[in-house]
Amino acid sequence: MPRAARVAPRRSRFALIASAVVASALVLTGCSAGGSGSESTTGGDSGSFPVTMKSALGSAAIDAKPKRIATWGWGAQDIVLALGIVPVAMPSFSYGGNADGVLPWDADQIKKLDGRTPQLLNADTGEVPFEEFVSAQPDVILAPYSGLTQTEYDTLSKIAPVVAYPEKPWATSWRDQTAIVGKALGLTAEADALVSKTEDFVTALAAKYPVLKDKKFFYAAANEPGKLNVYRAEDPRVQLLNDLGLKNSPSIDALDQSKGDGSFFYQLSNENLSKIDTDLLVMYFDKQSSVDAFTADPLVAAMPTITEGRFAPIVGESFVAATSAPSVLSIPWMLDRYVPELAKAADKVK
After folding, report:
1. Do 137 and 65 share a domain, yes or no?
2. Which of 40, 178, 283, 334 has the smallest set of CB atoms within 10 Å of its CB?
3. What is the pTM of this model?
4. DSSP 240
């Protein structure tokens, strides 16, 4: 799933944001959550306030239990919804979402909670929509799996406390994301329970398909002609397959010529495809015709994983979104549908 580049706002935007924040300060105090942003009646406080949330970009002091929650990046809205809360604002997803820009598992959960669709933040421009965050009047902004820059973080922090990623952008595991969101909302016990429930689901699925155990896989995407994006071990989508018992192919590290660049992936030319040594090739595609175009390339067609049926593509924008940002909501939605296909490919490993 493509990640739009985040660019720092122009200097002229800061004056606009600062004035908007000042103008909304009185409104922010004491505003109610309403139908969206309302809290579940089933979960109790398992945290205390004030709490300080540390991240790679700074510390956020949350003085009281947040009632109006905004999210940014991927996955945070899933966790909030899974905790029984409808955020007041979350990103729109033109890739993988419905006509309104809501991902299917989020739409299901909003309906289950009898909530209203939150304010949908424009996530397609490559810029953080600061004015839209001001309009949402959040008590906290959750972005543990995002690409926020220091400048963006500092600007958002003028609107509400911002909970960013603990180390690198786009590299927080789904477990850590859940723990971070749970702590920020005072729902640590509930978040821990969600992690345990999801782990139990994955464990049961792995037991149902023992053919997956210890198979080596190579995770990539063909987002540009003539080259692959190869996902490194720290990427959450790779770690999700590790949870099913699969092992990373040694080729992922052996072919990495740009180690230490801070990215979650590296690029590999199609001329080097023959050097990939793996049991399974896992890739994502927006639609079946993209799979067909990829495998029609002679260099691709000659790969043993292709000729022997050890290719397990993830097909469809919603499926790509689910595996690219695994969460306590997207994992069961996606794996239930994908793992049987992955097992079929694993059955062909000699």
Report:
1. yes
2. 40
3. 0.82
4. H
